[in-house]
Specification:
potassium, binds the ligand Nc1nc2c(c(=O)[nH]1)N(C=O)[C@@H](CNc1ccc(C(=O)N[C@@H](CCC(=O)O)C(=O)O)cc1)CN2, binds guanosine-5'-triphosphate, binds magnesium ion, tRNA processing
């Protein structure tokens, strides 16, 4: 495939030490050479070499920038094409001037978002799951999400999908033989064989799908709503977890009016924390809107941190909230445990299990480690380190896995009710194709465009 030559600023535009323009395509080296004055002749230079020199405006000979230029010749490059990287001084001006000069010559055009990664895909250097992992890498907000994406970028998920597809190809071959030689006793055996193999593939798919929930959490964080009646210490808890004074804390009930959102990682677990207004009946118009927002945060939460003031007996507002928390994933926090306890814990026993109740003093930072352990037990069964870090977290992948699974169960059902084998074969083939779509076999151009358009510019 011969494509044109593209360029873009690949570093975040803003103040920084250096900025990098990436150029990729057949004319990357010759087009860069037209602007580059150096002791080296980069047209002749070997791959993976770095050259010092200046960018000179060919129209007037003016020196525009002092740069370092890197050459990576295809296919040994990120895009598998000839790649030149121009490292300019940081800031916005220098890098934009150099890019403008490069584009002005007419042999290079500006890249679309994700186009470098798209080329790596089109040139067969990476498959679709790997390309999608690159988006996850950029967006990951915790070390762990990053490790998972890195693993996928290396091709761990696609290797699993390829193994599955290989098994289905063998199955298809087996069916083919049977269609050609349809003797009765062979048919019996084949039916059983197809059934077993399909069952096995379904189990593998289920195993991958089971990781999806965790994968989503790792990527997006557990949506965690801190709720409770006014003044129990919700905002104090947010601040303690964030280790910054993000939310206003006062001893006046009804301090927090809006939902405050912060992203943290607690012992490697990413949480999207929502501090909410204390929930109570109120005539105050502003506070009432706040309480409504608290309720909607409560609805969308994956995890609810229900804060109580252990220094006071259970309040009517606490009881009402407790009713509403029935059946939801809740951790009860008995806050202010530095003060004398006036709350009868037996009253909580009806609603919450003992393991989900944590004694806390935000003021003295007691109990936060226990909270961390309880969250870990709830969401990862205490086991955070998945054996091989392969998680399915992409909605497209999840959908395709479900579809492939459906095709395989269709095949098994068809066998059970005695449908001819050449019809059964269609279901197995469909499953094989659906798995292929995951890694980018036989995907449409518009889907490819849609996937890569999610990337940022210069990636
Ligand atoms: N300056 C710079 N830093 C970067 C990137 C980049 O493109 N430029 N990357 C962009 O995301 C990442 C690194 N990814 C890369 C992946 C493959 C190749 C590459 O040249 N691959 C060759 C192997 C070359 C060799 O083994 O000697 C190949 O696969 O053939 C380069 C960068 C992160 N850092
Ligand atoms: N003794 C003690 N006081 C605490 C503790 N945690 C919070 N407080 C105090 O309780 C008061 C209320 O704290 P906030 O964090 O504003 O309570 P809130 O639940 O966010 O209140 P609203 O926003 O009004 O719903 C403040 O005076 C805090 O200093 C604790 O662990 N021990
Ligand atoms: Mg508050």
């Amino acid at each position: 495939m011969t494509l044109d030559t593209i360029a873009a600023i690949s570093t975040a535009v803003g103040e920084g030490g250096i900025a990098v323009i990436r150029v990729s395509g057949p004319d990357a080296v010759t087009e860069s050479a037209k602007l580059f004055r150096s002791k080296s002749n980069i047209v002749e230079a070997p791959s993976h070499t770095v050259h010092y020199g200046h960018i000179v405006d060919p129209d007037n000979g003016e020196v525009v920038e002092e740069i370092l230029l890197t050459i990576m010749r295809g296919p040994r490059s990120f895009t598998a094409e000839d790649v030149v990287e121009l490292s300019t001084h940081g800031g916005v001006i220098a890098v934009k001037r150099v890019l403008a000069l490069l584009l002005r010559q007419g042999g290079v055009r500006i890249a679309e978002p994700g186009e470098f990664s798209k080329r790596a895909f089109l040139n067969g250097r990476i498959d679709l799951t790997q390309a999608e992992a690159v988006i996850d890498l950029i967006r990951s907000k915790s070390d762990r999400a990053f490790s998972v994406a890195m693993k996928q970028a290396e091709g761990a998920l696609s290797r699993k999908v390829k193994v599955l597809r290989h098994q289905l190809v063998e199955l298809l071959a087996h069916i083919e033989v049977n269609i050609d030689y349809p003797e009765h006793d062979v048919t019996e055996m084949t039916n059983q064989f197809i059934h077993e193999k399909s069952q096995h593939a379904c189990m593998e798919i289920d195993r991958l799908l089971k990781t999806a929930e965790e994968g989503k959490i790792l990527r997006e964080g557990i949506v965690t709503a801190i709720v409770g009646r006014p003044n129990v210490g919700k905002s104090s808890l947010l601040n303690a977890l964030v280790q910054e004074n993000k939310a206003i804390v006062t001893d006046i009930p009804g301090t927090t009016r809006d939902v405050i959102e912060e992203y943290i990682t607690l012992g490697g677990i990413p949480l999207r924390l929502l501090d909410t207004a204390g929930i109570r009946e109120t005539m105050d118009v502003v506070e009432r809107i706040g309480v409504e927002r608290s309720r909607s945060a409560l609805e969308q939460a994956d995890l609810i941190l229900f804060v109580l003031n252990a220094n006071e007996p259970l309040h009517e507002d606490d009881r009402q909230l407790m009713e509403q928390l029935q059946g939801r994933p809740v951790i009860v926090l008995l806050n202010k445990s530095d003060l004398p306890s006036n709350l009868d814990p037996s009253e909580l026993g009806h609603f919450f299990s003992e393991e989900s109740i944590v004694k806390l003093s935000v003021l003295e930072e007691i109990g936060l480690d226990r909270l961390e352990r309880v969250i870990r037990d709830m969401f990862f069964g205490g086991e955070l380190e998945s054996a091989d870090l392969t998680y399915v977290s992409n909605v497209r992948h999840i959908t395709l896995l479900h579809e492939a699974r459906k095709s395989l169960t269709d095949a098994m059902e068809a066998i059970d009710i005695g449908i001819p084998i050449d019809i059964v074969q269609i279901d197995v083939r469909t499953a094989w194709e659906q798995l292929g779509e995951m890694i980018g076999d036989s995907v449409s151009e518009s889907l490819i465009d849609q996937i890569f358009s999610q990337f940022c510019l210069g990636k």
